[in-house]
Design goal:
Helix content: 55-70%
Number of helices: 5
Order of helices and strands: HHHHH
Low-confidence stretches: 46-51
Distance between the termini: 31 Å
Radius of gyration: 18 Å
Mean pLDDT: 75
Amino acid sequence: MWHWPLSGSGRPEACRTLARALVYLRASLHGAILDTLRIYSRPREVPMSLLGEPHVADHTDRSEVWEILQTMLPNEREQRLTYLLYHCGLKPREIMCFYPQEWSDVQEIYRLQHNIIERLLYKVEQSLSESKKSVL
């Protein structure tokens, strides 16, 4: 996650204006979303001695996250790219190498990745503002 230098008051130096504070918060939210996606996309290694019954909670959490992402990303290409990036852990160049028939070039993958992040940020910001209104 990104961290900005703190002033003596404990506030980020960049938060001297409302606009900068919003940019800082957006960057923090972006980092949190990426961190969460990376955590859920990591393969989980479990020693064979600990394997007994399958741990259903981990599977349920992952499937719930994926269902939420699918509702937030109705475009099948964006869902596919999200799966390859965050579930499979592939980098854009690797995706282009392994699936050249699906993408015109690596720049398209970067553009779609940017659009996905922007859409997720927008949806999160939208739901936060709606929940804020309901509290007031």
